Amino acid sequence: MIVYGSRSTHLKSEQLRNAVCPNCETRGQLTASVYGRHAHVFWIPFFPMGNTGILGCQHCHKGFKPKELDEKAKMEYKNFRGTVKTPLWKFAGLGIVALLIGAGIFSNKMTEEKVTELVANPAMFDKYTFKTEANYYSTFKVVEVFKDSIYVNYNDYETDKKSGLKDIDIEKNYDKDIYVLTNADLEGLHSAGKIEDIERTK
Ligand SMILES: [Zn+2]
Prior knowledge:
four-stranded antiparallel sheet; SH3 type barrels
């Protein structure tokens, strides 16, 4: 369940020095306040949703909307409104999402570079995570390395989710039969985007 909603917080207040109260016509007693609404997800502020201004007279204690002011007071209110800034914390959720996306892209790039390097230089006990024809995930491990080919043992099992790999990646699942993959086969798998990851244990 995702808990979300919106909430208003006080941003800034200021007394308008020259504005006249629309009700009691006292000058300089109007206080303008601006409240900012923001969307939150699990109480983490995500993004601002606009500001609302209200005015209160300290003399007659009546409240007003900005549009109820006379033209001169509206100008003064607008000037004050121009000084109200949306605090950065109201963007916290968007910032977190941006960081996560950035970290994800970075981590994918690191994995890609590692795979490219390890495919070019296979070593004993390298464990490959690959995508099958039907886009399932499975693994094989390198059991012998030659100049232009490798011997591998395939995992007998496959899984439809990456998170399932840890369940099938156990020693007794590896077929003892030897399969030969040439370096060209490996490069082919790699350029087809079939190699998800390589784990080098030694
Ligand atoms: Zn008043």
